[in-house]
Specification:
about 350 residues; alpha/beta; 4-stranded mixed sheet; 15 helices; 9 strands
């Protein structure tokens, strides 16, 4: 009722949301669409690290970005290459402080936010304790990972990567048929056991911000042992992601942005969810069982066109956790909104030119 009344009383023409799958955001989007109000969403970029999404309607399955290869090639025509040099580097301390301020303010003082609903699955303090434990053990895990990867590099056989996501990730919950991460992991292990080459290895890489409230290592070991491939399935916490992808035979994920990086590096990728990059010619669409033997790499010209179009139409440069990054993102978003250029090519941002609202 409040949202409907607010939209009507103030003659709202545009609604802009940070993440579109939170409960109250879904209510606002429904009310906006009933009134033909334009909905624009923003979040961390599909491209990482210092890119921010600005797109109409929604992300991934809800995105209006074209899925037809010919349309993608046409959209990318004359667009510049994606600028990969990092401009805005987020600091861990500032990111942690801002995140904790947001989550703990409602968790520790709930009476000041009586109608607030958390979008996270677990209580923030529980999550922070889990992440804190990982930070304490980071050095140990990094050394263990380095040793495991050195051993693997010395043996023959294909290496496949399963890029894990956090279960709090809305792209996992909203844009796939999985309610958790256990199910796709089990599906991948069982398929790997039945169809992958006998000397191949499947490596599960945990997300850097996963609080590990589930003991992924023991869970994966149990799943692998049940499938009869206990020695061929490995869990790692750390490692150089780009190097790991580049030396692998392919990447499996639900809809992690790691899949987009695999496309950029020319590696076969299978997306189990409704990722924005799940497009014929970019991802392997013949299913898990076929992927281990016949995983096909993305078509190079389509991958290049897709990345250029994605960057130029759905992103601005910037970040959420530094003053300079926030300013750049805000100016880029304002420029797109002011000039009705959301979902339209904006080469000026890619070239780092100064934007003007005039």
């Amino acid at each position: 009722y409040y949202i409907n009344t607010f939209l009507d009383q103030h003659s709202i023409t545009d609604v802009v949301l940070l993440g579109e799958q939170r409960a109250l955001h879904r209510v606002a989007i429904e009310a906006a669409k009933e009134r033909f109000i334009t909905v624009t969403v923003t979040d961390f970029g599909y491209i990482r690290p210092d890119w921010v999404i600005v797109e109409l309607n929604g992300m991934n399955a809800d995105s209006l970005f074209p899925r037809d290869p010919q349309a993608i090639h046409a959209l990318a025509k004359d667009l510049p290459p994606v600028e990969r040099a990092v401009i805005y580097r987020d600091g861990f301390f500032s990111q942690a402080m801002l995140d904790m301020t947001f989550h703990l303010s409602s968790a520790l003082f709930p009476w000041t936010f009586p109608y607030f609903k958390r979008h996270t699955l677990q209580h923030p303090i529980t999550n922070y304790l889990g992440i804190g434990r990982r930070l304490v053990l980071a050095g140990v895990e990094e050394r263990r990972t380095r040793k495991v990867l050195e051993q693997l590099s010395a043996v023959p056989g294909l290496k496949y990567i399963f890029a894990m996501q956090t279960e709090d990730d809305y792209s996992l919950r909203a844009y796939s048929h999985y309610a958790n991460l256990d199910t796709p992991m089990r599906e991948a292990i069982q398929s790997f056991a039945r169809h992958a080459p006998p000397d191949s290895v499947l490596i599960f890489k945990v997300h850097p911000l996963d609080p590990e409230l589930k003991n992924w290592r023991s869970m994966i070991e149990r799943m692998a042992n049940e499938a009869g491939v206990g020695r061929r399935v490995i869990y790692i916490d750390g490692g150089d992601l780009d190097k790991l992808i580049a030396t692998s035979a392919g990447v499996v994920t639900v809809n992690s942005t790691v899949g987009l990086r695999a496309i950029e590096l020319g590696l076969p990728i299978l997306a189990l969810g409704q990722a924005i990059y799940r497009i014929h010619g970019l991802t392997h669409e013949a299913g898990l069982d076929d992927f281990w033997i016949n995983g096909c790499a993305p078509e190079p010209s389509l991958a290049n066109a897709f990345l250029r179009a994605l960057a130029a139409t759905l992103h601005v440069r910037g970040s959420y956790y530094t003053r300079e990054g926030v300013r750049a993102a805000a100016e880029g978003m304002a420029y797109r909104l002011h000039h009705n250029l959301v979902n339209q090519p904006l080469p000026a941002v890619l070239r780092g030119e100064t934007l003007s609202l005039e």
